[in-house]
Amino acid sequence: AMRNRAEVDATLQTAKLNPAELLPVVHCLSFGPQAGAGECCLLQLEPGLCAELEAGRSLVIRGEKDEQAVLCSKDKTYDMKIADTSNMLLFIPGCQTPEQMNVDQGSCNIIHSQIAGFSNNYWELRRCRPKLKKLRKLLMEDPYEGPDSQKDQTLTFSKYTTEDLLSLIQASEEEIVHQLQAIDACKIQGYWRILEFDYAMKLLNHVIQLIDAESWSLSKVPLRTCLEELGSLEPTEMIEHILLSYGRKYVDDGEVYFEMHEDKICRVLAQMLLQNAVKFNLSEFQQVWQQSVPEGMTTRLDQLKGLALVDKSSRPETIFLLKVEDLPEDNQERFNSLFSIREKWTEVDITPYIQDLCAEKQTVGTLLTKYARSSMQNGVKVYNSRRPIS
C-alpha cells in the first residue's frame, strides 16, 4: 500500500528526525516487478570519458575469453576491475536529486518511485598501457617475403585486416595505428603485414646502393628516380614502403624526397650483423658495423638501446642481441626475465628494457623501487631481483 503523509510523519518521529530540517518532498520506494540484481551494470567514468559518450562517440570493451577485459576509447585503454560497495546501489528511473527539485515549502509532496534494479558493485576503470605485444606476434605468424613467395601465391597466410586487429588487440584504435607504424607494418592487398627481416634488408640494400651509385645526399633522396631505377627489381609500393620506414618524406619544389634516418639505418644494420652470432667481440663489432653503414653515417652504441647489450664484465668486452620486443609484457615477468639474463644491472643498462612498462606519470625509478633491490658495487649503484630467480 502507498504511504500517506501521516504515515511518513510517524516514521520520521520513530527515526527521531526533525521534519523542519528536511526537504518536504518524500520518496516512497518499492521494488518493481522486474527488479533484480545482475540485470544492470554500473560503470564509473572519469569526466573525459563521460564527455566522449555524451558527444555520441563509443567506448568498446575488448578481449578474448581468456583475457582480462579492457575498455577502449578512441585513443586510450583502461583496465576494468569490479569494485564492491558496502551500500546497496538502487536504480530508480526518473529519480531527482535535491538540487533538481523546485520545492515550494508550502507543499508536502510524496513521490512514489519504483526500484528497477540494484547492485552491490560497479566497474572501476584504471588507465593502463595498451596490450600491443600480441599485434607483432599475430603479424609475425606470416611475415611478407616478397611477391615471389610461394606462400603468398597460394594465399594461405594468416590474414589480418584493420577490423580483425581491432577485435583481437586490447588497445584503442589510435594506439593500434601508432604501433603499426612503429613496427613498420604495411598494408598489402588490404591485409596488414610485417616484412620478413631478410626481405626488408634486401630492399634497404637496393636503396642504399642506389644512393651510393648516384652520390645523392642522404637528406635528399628522390622518390621518383628510386621507383624508376628499382621498379624492375621489386614492386614500387615496397620500395616506397622501405623509404617510409627508414626515412622522412617531404616535398620540395613539387618533387617528393626522403631524408634517411641515420639512427634507424645504423640500428637495423647492427641487428643484421648481431643476429648471426651469439656474442660478438665489441671492438671488432664496432669496426665491422661502421664499415657496413652508408658513407656519411656514424655508428654509436646508443643507437642500439633496447636491441643489444654490452657485457663489460667479459674480457674482451662483448655485445649480444637482446630485443625488448622479445621480452614479456607483464611487469613482474619482464623483471624475472631480465634478472635471469643478468643478475645485476645498472640503471643505464636496464632503462631501455623497462621504459615501455612505465604507465602514465610513472618513471623508471618507481618501477625499479617496486621490482628490484639496489646496492653499491665498486661505487656504482646496481639493481638485482627482490625474489630468488629460478
Write the layout of secondary structure elements.
Layout: H1 5-14, E1 26-37, H2 47-54, E2 60-62, E3 70-72, E4 77-91, E5 110-127, H3 133-139, H4 150-154, H5 162-168, H6 173-182, E6 186-188, E7 191-193, H7 197-214, E8 221-222, H8 223-230, H9 236-246, E9 247-252, E10 255-260, H10 262-274, E11 280-281, H11 282-292, E12 308-311, E13 318-321, H12 331-341, E14 345-346, H13 347-354, H14 364-371, E15 372-377, E16 380-385
Parallel strand pairs: 1-5
Antiparallel strand pairs: 2-3, 3-4, 4-5, 6-7, 8-10, 9-10, 11-13, 12-13, 14-16, 15-16
Strand content: 15-25%
Whole-number average pLDDT? 90
Low-confidence stretches: none
The number of E-state strands comes to 16
Proportion of residues in helical segments:
25-40%
Radius of gyration: 31 Å
What about the largest sheet? 5 strands, mixed
- What is the succession of H and E elements? HEHEEEEHHHHEEHEHHEEHEHEEHEHHEE
Calculate the terminal CA-CA distance, rounded to whole Å. Answer: 69 Å
Strand-pairing-aware structural class: alpha+beta
Count of separate structural domains? 4
Descriptors:
single chain, 390 residues, alpha+beta, 4 domains, 3-stranded antiparallel beta sheet, 35% helix, Sister chromatid cohesion protein DCC1, Dcc1, DNA replication
Describe this structure in words.
- With 390 residues, the protein is an alpha+beta fold.
- The protein folds into 4 domains: 5-127, no CATH class; 132-194, no CATH class; 197-260; 295-385, no CATH class.
- Helices cover 35% and strands 24% of the residues.
- It has 14 helices and 16 strands.
- It has helices at residues 5-14, 47-54, 133-139, 150-154, 162-168, 173-182, 197-214, 223-230, 236-246, 262-274, 282-292, 331-341, 347-354, 364-371; strands at residues 26-37, 60-62, 70-72, 77-91, 110-127, 186-188, 191-193, 221-222, 247-252, 255-260, 280-281, 308-311, 318-321, 345-346, 372-377, 380-385.
- The strands form 5 sheets. Strands 1-5-4-3-2 form a 5-stranded mixed beta sheet, covered by helices on one side. A 3-stranded antiparallel beta sheet has the order 8-10-9. A 3-stranded antiparallel beta sheet has the order 11-13-12.
- A hairpin with a 6-residue loop joins strand 12 and strand 13.
- Helix 7 crosses helix 9 (236-246) and helix 8 (223-230) crosses helix 9 (236-246).
- The mean pLDDT is 90.
